[in-house]
């Protein structure tokens, strides 16, 4: 057996290894330890798995988990479907294409907190622009962020608006890499535009789809800033997600408990994303 | 013993004066962003600088609420606390582990000026004083609009039933009876927290038993009343239409200017009105949250926050001198003149002659023994962090009062366990 020797000496990797272990490895291990303690920043007392038991018993946790999954899948699905459609439109050579691309991408550049605060003003139940405009044409606007049945979906809508630009951009790059030969061949064979979209574009743009779905799922699962800026998980607990439940434990000074919550979030993301990427990658090989 | 203390103190003073003559001192100060806090500290620092022109203050502000709690704890734990900082008294103070993290102030010359009622809420478990009162005591109750009351010929209610009858008349007159501001979730807790006078008059040992895990909100009818009150007023449709999104400032403006008749709140809201709608101050009245018995009508009170010094800081000696002065009657009256929104807790410290109407409405409760009771958070270290979300749920019709109380009982378990209380 031949042991393949790296062409570089070990000290080459030292700087990266030091940075990685100090900034990533050590905190990760420390958080595993602190998740097993009752920690008040001044002292930590080992209590075994009590924090995990407590966190999983949180009455708002189940609602938060369901909301997290709804949020992640809804934003991911809408972004990938509308992102692809917009990308097709914006690569079709329509008028002012460059300008429109910039307009679509613009919300991505704005700070999430800024977007959240702006939309919570726009969605104010009585003074917000949206409901004032609706009432001007005789429609009584709902309490976008104050109706417990609606709050989560209003935030999803804003997240979709804000993240659509990035999905579109990735799809535009994906579309650009499809060779025009395929379309030419399809046209010679007499394919319609719809057929070309479903039989040529969708399968060949798959790498972009994988990127968009994975990124937006991870983003959705750990989303926090927009929700916090818009509703703080309210009214009550109706728009709480896993990350906001964790943050509230931290705010209340339950540092060990919130660390345990973070470990659970880490495991949950792993459990959803790992099989999914494995599945995507296998399909790619089969193609 | 006394002699030695005096001599050491004297030598410290001499040493300090010598150093003060050489260099000016800048004390770093950490305050929350409340407008009353800023006004109080300005009054305090300005008059101190007249005595000690060599001292200047570098004031830094921090968020309030639980974000502020974290910041204070983190800075204390990492040894990066300002020379002087302002923070809550009572159970939040205890959570700072005062005997380890804060400077002992019991040796200050003016320490004896701190009134007994306040001393209790800034004393570390080892029996030493760690904080100086900063600001007026507050009442938790209901602000009302005096104009609306006069126009409709209403009387200040002494029982909850009278209060609801007033609400019905106000609603019939086409006005908003109760302002609610769930855009700031903490404002939703008042009907529960301000009901504690009524709980403690009915069950004097509720707080002790509560801390010992022997009584619960859900199974104690008189404690459950607070949650039921929210449910009742919500079901009666008495709120402003934007109650889910309105903020604390909106609530104060509404009740002061007559857009709403009532707003349950702590009296520190007076400061907000005197800053934003001073012309409306005479119309702003205040009464205690009524219970079921008119003969037992009284006010739930909140202690003000305190000024503290960390156990270790660069300017520890100068910081203590400032705190000593802050505990003097003279300094207290400077604060009382700047923010006359309630009684001060330094002995013989008097309020200025002209005070807002709502403050005069509140003072009688303090003048009769037994008509005030401290809020639960000053008697028990347990306060569940999710109460404000739970009360929002009740007020928004998401959860019933009984369920809410049971959920809150579950929520406080975490706090009790984190504090390591026995019996939980």
Q: What can you tell me about this protein's structure?
A:
Chain B: Keywords: Periplasm, Signal, Transport. Chain B: Its main location: periplasm. Chain B: Belongs to the bacterial solute-binding protein 1 family. The complex is a heterodimer of chains A (287) and B (424). Chain A has 287 residues and is mostly helical. Chain A is built from 13 helices and two strands; from the N terminus they run αββαααααααααααα. Chain A has helices spanning 14-34, 50-57, 61-90, 97-109, 112-122, 129-136, 151-176, 180-188, 193-204, 206-221, 225-230, 242-251, 255-286, and strands at 37-39, 44-46. Chain A is flat, with a radius of gyration of 24 Å. By secondary structure, chain B is of the alpha/beta class. In chain B, 53% of the residues are buried. The chains are: A mainly alpha (287), B alpha/beta (424). The A-B interface holds A 38, 40-42, 45, 54, 59-60, 120, 124-127, 143, 145-148, 232-238, 248-254, 257 and B 66-67, 69-70, 73-74, 77, 95, 97, 100-101, 182, 185, 241-245, 385-386, 389-390, 392-393, 396, 398-399, 407, 410-411, 414-415, 417-418, 420.
């Amino acid at each position: 057996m031949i042991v393949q020797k790296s062409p570089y000496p070990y000290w080459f990797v030292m700087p990266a290894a030091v940075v990685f272990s100090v900034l990533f490895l050590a905190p990760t291990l420390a958080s595993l330890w602190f998740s097993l303690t009752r920690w008040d920043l001044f002292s930590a007392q080992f209590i075994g798995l009590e924090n995990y038991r407590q966190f999983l018993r949180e009455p708002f946790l189940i609602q938060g988990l369901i909301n997290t999954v709804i949020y992640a899948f809804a934003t991911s699905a809408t972004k990938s479907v509308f992102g692809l459609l917009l990308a097709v439109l914006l690569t079709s050579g329509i008028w002012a294409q460059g300008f429109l691309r910039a307009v679509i991408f613009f919300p991505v550049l704005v700070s999430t907190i800024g977007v959240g605060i702006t939309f919570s003003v726009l969605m104010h139940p009585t003074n917000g622009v949206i409901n004032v405009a609706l009432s001007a044409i005789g429609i009584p606007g709902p309490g976008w962020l104050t109706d417990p049945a609606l709050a989560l979906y209003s935030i999803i809508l804003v997240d979709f608006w804000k993240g659509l630009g990035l999905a579109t951009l990735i799809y535009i790059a994906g579309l650009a890499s499809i060779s025009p030969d395929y379309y030419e061949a399809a046209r010679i064979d007499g394919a319609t535009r719809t057929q070309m979209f479903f039989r040529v574009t969708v399968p060949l743009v798959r790498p972009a789809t994988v990127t968009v779905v994975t990124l937006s799922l991870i983003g959705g699962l750990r989303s926090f800033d927009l929700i916090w800026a818009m509703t703080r998980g309210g009214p009550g607990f109706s728009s709480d997600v896993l990350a906001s439940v964790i943050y509230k434990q931290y705010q209340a000074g339950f540092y060990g408990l919130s660390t345990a919550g973070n470990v659970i979030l880490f495991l949950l993301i792993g459990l959803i994303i790992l099989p999914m990427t494995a599945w995507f990658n296998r399909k790619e090989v089969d193609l | 013993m006394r002699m030695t203390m005096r001599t050491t103190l004297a030598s410290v003073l001499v040493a300090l004066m010598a150093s003060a003559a050489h260099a000016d001192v800048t004390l770093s100060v950490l305050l929350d962003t409340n407008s009353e806090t800023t006004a109080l500290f300005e009054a305090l620092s300005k008059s101190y600088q007249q005595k000690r022109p060599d001292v200047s203050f570098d004031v830094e502000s921090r968020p309030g609420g639980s974000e502020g709690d974290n910041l204070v704890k983190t800075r204390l734990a990492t040894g990066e606390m300002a020379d002087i900082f302002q923070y809550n008294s009572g159970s939040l103070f205890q959570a700072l582990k005062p005997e380890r993290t804060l400077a002992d102030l019991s040796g200050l010359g003016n320490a004896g000026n701190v009134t007994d009622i306040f001393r209790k809420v800034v004393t570390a478990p080892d029996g030493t004083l760690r904080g100086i009162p900063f600001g007026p005591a507050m009442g938790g109750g209901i602000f009302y609009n005096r104009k609306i009351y006069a126009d409709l010929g209403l009387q200040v209610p002494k029982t909850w039933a009278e209060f609801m009858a007033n609400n019905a008349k106000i609603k019939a007159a086409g006005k908003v009876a109760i302002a609610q501001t769930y855009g700031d979730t903490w404002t939703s807790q008042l009907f529960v927290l301000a009901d504690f006078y009524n709980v403690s008059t009915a069950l004097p040992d509720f707080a002790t038993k509560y801390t010992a895990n022997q009584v619960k909100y859900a199974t104690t009818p008189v404690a459950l009343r607070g949650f039921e009150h929210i449910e009742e007023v919500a079901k009666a449709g008495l709120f402003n239409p934007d109650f889910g999104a309105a903020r604390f400032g909106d609530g104060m403006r509404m009740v002061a200017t007559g857009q709403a008749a009532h707003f349950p709140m702590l009296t520190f809201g007076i400061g907000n009105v005197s800053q934003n709608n001073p012309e409306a101050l005479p119309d702003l009245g205040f009464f205690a949250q009524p219970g079921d018995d008119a003969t037992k009508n009284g006010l739930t009170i909140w202690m003000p926050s305190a000024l503290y010094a960390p156990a270790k800081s660069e300017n520890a000696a100068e910081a203590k001198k400032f705190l000593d002065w802050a505990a003097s009657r003279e300094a207290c009256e400077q604060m009382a003149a700047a923010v006359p929104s309630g009684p001060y807790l330094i002995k013989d410290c008097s309020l200025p002659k002209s005070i807002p109407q709502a403050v005069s409405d509140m003072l009688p409760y303090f003048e009769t023994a037994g008509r005030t009771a401290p809020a639960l958070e000053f008697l028990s270290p347990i306060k569940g962090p999710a109460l404000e979300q739970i009360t929002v749920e009740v007020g928004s019709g998401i959860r019933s009062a009984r369920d809410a109380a049971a959920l809150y009982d579950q929520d406080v378990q975490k706090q009790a366990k984190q504090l390591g209380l026995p019996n939980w």
